[in-house]
Amino acid sequence: MLPIERRQQIVTWLNKEGSISITEISKRLNVSEMTVYRDIKPLLEESKIIKTSGGISLAPAPVIGVSAHACTYCLKESNNRHPVQIITNDLRVEQLCCPHCGILRYKDIEKDVSQIICRDFLHNSTISAKMAYFLMDADFQLNCCQPQVLTFESIKHAEQFQKGFGGTVLRFDEAVEEIRKRMKGESGCHCKN
């Protein structure tokens, strides 16, 4: 396979999965990790992809008139450690500042969502939001959108964090319903600025 073909394959995987590790790409393509790094270099230079702690992901599409680092839902600067990405069926990538905004945006465009990705609060690893556990109302202030929502990959970690800081552990569908109920159809996200 030629380098350009490998790059096209990598972008195809990113469109489907959101993010992927260099090791996983190496295994799938049956090439060395150094070859993968050489292959992704042009994609990085063209700002088509970005490096993440776990590998690479698609670069977010800029929204006209909004900072490249702003949440596409509440529009505030997205600089906290628990962002969410939504990948739409037409391959747009939306960056959201937190699980709260991610859930609200998901509910707004649910039929157009191909994938929703978040980060484990403790380990900062990328996980599918639909497989995550959500902790709401923990007594742990991040000065972010309200009601505050934290995500965990494992129920064990969510429950351990809950024991120390309180709150309620929910699955994805339950979290979507709970946020929807609390917002009572209001637009916006009750952010603390």
Which structural traits does this protein have?
193 residues; alpha+beta; Arc Repressor Mutant, subunit A; 6 helices; 21% strand
Description of the structure:
By secondary structure, the chain is α+β, with helices and mostly antiparallel strands. It is 36% helix and 21% strand. The chain has two domains: 56 residues, Arc Repressor Mutant, subunit A (Orthogonal Bundle), CATH 1.10.10; 100 residues, no CATH class. The chain has six helices and ten strands. Helix 2 packs across helix 3 and helix 4 crosses helix 6. The radius of gyration is 17 Å and the shape is elongated. The mean pLDDT is 84.
- Strand neighbour order, sheet with most strands: 5-4-6-7
Strand tally: 10
Class per helix and strand makeup: alpha+beta
**Overall geometric form:** elongated
Mean pLDDT across all amino acids: 84
Largest sheet: 4 strands, antiparallel
Q: Determine the fraction of residues in helical runs and give it as a percent range.
A: 25-40%
What Rg is obtained from the alpha carbons, in whole angstroms? 17 Å
The quaternary structure here is: single chain
Protein name: DeoR/GlpR family transcriptional regulator of sugar metabolism
Keywords: Transcription, Transcription regulation
Domain HTH deoR-type: 3-58
